[in-house]
Amino acid sequence: MVAGTREKILEVGKREFLAKGFKDASLRHIVKEAGFTQGAFYGYYPDKAALFDALVSPAADGLIEQFKAAQKAHFDLVDEGRADESGSLSTAYLRRFVGYLYDNFDAFKLIICCSGGTRYEHFVHDLVELELEQTARFYEEVAAQGGPENRISPELQHMITSAYFTAVFETVAHDMPRERALSYIEELAAFFTCGWEGLLGARE
Fold it and tell me: What is the pLDDT of residue 1?
């Protein structure tokens, strides 16, 4: 096959998905625009979903790994008796996450705005669920070491966490310039940190 076929298909596929979303993107148009036959396409990807996956999975998997590393760092704080530093650690990792989003901007634009009908359709929701699961474990460990218990209802915790993650990904959804996004998430972190502290203090 012609050298560069895969790269050409990825390039054209990305444009098509960004313009129309996964559901409305035309595989026939992608192949035609790339200047190859349908058979050449199937030599690389079995279907349109596999092409979409190839465009976004490296970035998505990388973010999940960073997210898990952040969670481990929070549990390390508990082990070291420094759980009260969790808020500042969260903000530090948020800066890393947003930098990573912008280093892989097109992939996350596809995930956030164009992934309906793919396994990435609920990517943000899945992150929220992972965060809630790890947060519950975090507070259990804090309480086991004599710290305060988390008395916030699961329903409220879910709503606040979902709002937080949605707000972070709005930077990508609205094509916010990187520098503006970095400034925005500092304000966002301050807002949610104050909110959590006020809410937890009110429940003690």
Answer: 44
Give the pLDDT score at 201.
Answer: 66
Q: Is there a contact between 60 and 119 (Cβ–Cβ < 8 Å)?
A: no
110: its two tokens: 């596809």
Class of domain 56-203: mainly alpha
- One of 1.10.580.10, 3.40.309.10, 3.40.50.300, 1.10.10.60 is the CATH number of 1-46, namely 1.10.10.60
Q: How many helices (H) and strands (E) does the chain have?
A: 9, 0
Residue 3 above 80 pLDDT? no
- DSSP label of 47: S
Buried b (16+ CB within 10 A) or exposed e, 43-71: eebeebeebbbbbbeebbeebeeebeebb
CA distance readout (Å), 100 to 11, 64, 109, 192:
21, 11, 13, 21
Dihedral (C-alpha) 10, 14, 16, 18: value to the nearest 10 degrees?
170
Query: What pLDDT is recorded for position 150?
Result: 67
When pLDDT is averaged across residues 78-89 and rounded to a whole number, the result is 75
Please check whether residue 113 is in contact with residue 175, taking contact to mean a CB–CB distance below 8 angstroms.
no
In the predicted model, is pLDDT for residue 73 greater than 90? no
